[in-house]
Amino acid sequence: MKILAIETSCDETALALVEAKGGLKSPKFRILKNIVSSQTAIHAHWGGVVPNLAKREHLKNLPILFKKLGKPKIDLLAVTVGPGLEPALWTGVNFAKELHKNIFPKAKFIGANHLEGHLYSFLLSLEYKKQKTGIKNLFPAIGLVVSGGHTILLLMKSLTRWEKLGETRDDAVGEAFDKAARMLELPYPGGPQIEKLARVGDPEAISFPRPMLNDKNYEFSFSGLKTSVLYYLRDNPKAKKADVAASFQKAASDVLITKTARAVKEFRAKSVLLSGGVAANKSIRKELSVMSYKLKVNFFVPPIKFNTDNATMIAVAAYIQFLQKKNRPIKANANLNL
């Protein structure tokens, strides 16, 4: 099955052409095209994504990117319908509707969940491609989805059945990274800048709090950690920024790793699946990999280019959704969840 996927949930305009086969028992994907047009330089001046600017750029970029695909023959057309910024989502939805009407009228048409795209991106990992035990032997699994808008811990009972164990009660971990970066006067986007600066800092220099670390649940909270950084910088104006970045990153990471490890043990998981934009953080990737090795479970994380927003993961989610014969309205839903 050949899939054309469109992703415009935030500030990345992305299209992908993917060949999928294997069904739910052994899904496999061949990436024919993966095109992403970033708007980072445009939003950097504002220190964050401006929805109407993102919409304007999507409207400009979508026809340009589509031309780069040539004249593909497809079986399935998929577009992200949420969650995300509503003005941005509508550009992708409306563009996809025009394509379906005028160019691909015979193709199946699916509205995909952006978070399911992240969740299923483990199917693009090198580890998944190498494994030979069969997908059913990877479950139960603990899925950790970490991004600028979400921090969610899931118990995946199978590829298509999961239960949400917990999520953030306030700021997502990626949002906390961006806000801490702003306090440190680092360029946008803040997450990668924190990671870069943390490499030359001491992660033990400052004892920032680990919110909800010892609570007997799988909920998260990062607003208190963010506020601690604010007060520390206020009270220590000459503090080494690298130490602040490293200590902040360690505090956030400790919470993610500890709660994931606890879930692995409680539910006797066979695998850990890491996804979302924050999964591009090499320190967090490494710590979760080491934790998984110690607990003798599989660890799956896609290549970094598939952690950040892209349309290939939307094609993967759409394929799984199509196989389940699941339909959702093809209209923007900014608050769509797992």
Automatic annotation (TrEMBL):
Domain Gcp-like: 31-315
Gene3D superfamilies: 3.30.420.40
UniProt: substrate binding residues: V145, V146, S147, G148, G149, D178, G191, E195, N281
Localization annotation: Cytoplasm
CDD domains: ASKHA_NBD_TsaD_bac
UniProt-listed Enzyme Commission number(s): 2.3.1.234
Keywords: Acyltransferase, Cytoplasm, Iron, Metal-binding, Transferase, tRNA processing
Cited InterPro entries: ATPase_NBD, Gcp-like_dom, KAE1/TsaD, TsaD
A single GO BP: tRNA threonylcarbamoyladenosine modification
Keyword tRNA processing carried by entry: yes
Catalytic activity: L-threonylcarbamoyladenylate + adenosine(37) in tRNA = N(6)-L-threonylcarbamoyladenosine(37) in tRNA + AMP + H(+)
Cited function: Required for the formation of a threonylcarbamoyl group on adenosine at position 37 (t(6)A37) in tRNAs that read codons beginning with adenine. Is involved in the transfer of the threonylcarbamoyl moiety of threonylcarbamoyl-AMP (TC-AMP) to the N6 group of A37, together with TsaE and TsaB. TsaD likely plays a direct catalytic role in this reaction.
Protein name as catalogued: tRNA N6-adenosine threonylcarbamoyltransferase
Origin species: Candidatus Jorgensenbacteria bacterium GW2011_GWA1_48_11
